[in-house]
Amino acid sequence: MRAVIPYKKSGAKSRLSPVLSLEEREEFVELMLNQVIDSLKEAGIEKIDVLSPSAYGLEGMTKARVLLDEKDLNEALNRYLEEAEEPVLIVMADLPLLSPDHIKGITSTKKDICIVPGKGGGTNALFIKNPSRYRVKYYGSSFLTHCSIATDSGQNYEIYDSFLAGTDIDEPEDLVELLVHGKGTAKDYINRKFKLEVSRGRVGLVPL
Amino acid sequence: MRAVIPYKKSGAKSRLSPVLSLEEREEFVELMLNQVIDSLKEAGIEKIDVLSPSAYGLEGMTKARVLLDEKDLNEALNRYLEEAEEPVLIVMADLPLLSPDHIKGITSTKKDICIVPGKGGGTNALFIKNPSRYRVKYYGSSFLTHCSIATDSGQNYEIYDSFLAGTDIDEPEDLVELLVHGKGTAKDYINRKFKLEVSRGRVGLVPL
To answer: A81 is in which domain, residue-wise?
Structure first.
């Protein structure tokens, strides 16, 4: 089994720009990436690749292999799947609430594919036992698309139902989940900049 | 064991007012309430109370007992807990993705308390084995509060980690989750009014 994490530091997380500067966003995604790598390692996954269109920010990466591919995310991942000769776990880099236990649960599925839905129709992780038989299609409603691709290719799938693994950090409101449910360096980083604002609706953020 | 569902139809779900009229919101919450009751029954829970400050919209309720209490949500629920002589599952009425399997999982916890986090720091469901020893405090960051109340009263707790049970329907973006992951009459209702709008970020809604 191997894991691959698509990653791009340059100009990362533009939807967080209302609350974090470019420099802060780039620091923050690096912290999240490192947390995801640490969780994978702690779950016992030894072969970890970071797939990026650019070496920017990955010059000092020693915890994982760096693969550069300038192609679009889907093309790069599908090339990766074609060449993989063992089960592949694709995991997004913006999942600081993903724990080693989640990773063990996802990769121990009895089905051909395990799909972890993200917020807003997305796919946060995808475990594929036979990568040569599967192709990904991220963007848009990728969760439904990934379910269909499994079915259309005659493979069965499990939906991994987790609030924490399902929380990808893209919008300012997602930082609330990190503060409420998170731990580690990514949470600490946000915790130094914001506090929770308690109201009668959902909790919000205010700058410190 | 008994279940209690706090409910208020009148003027419900004001945060959905950008996309649904008052009349639509009131119809929609009634559909969600009925789905939650059906899931509880299917999970084998026979004693179900709907706790409401008003009889409005509950005149024809035959599937559950209706309890009227004009007090604030927390006061009404705490009075309910004080008087309960058996384990209590408090479940919110806006959880159309909550399944009978989730309910069985939550109520089979080995801990004293099982807490189901909702989006934005909320609490979507709370299973309390010894209700006379617990008090609720909804609003604000109630998830963290409910964890503390358990600890402070010497009771241990499980956090039930579910994307689906964790999706309470309060904001327009939550309707996207209902369309992507839901089924049943509440989904059908939203499906007749909106379609998913696919972009490179999270999926959005557009009116039909």
So the answer is: 2-168
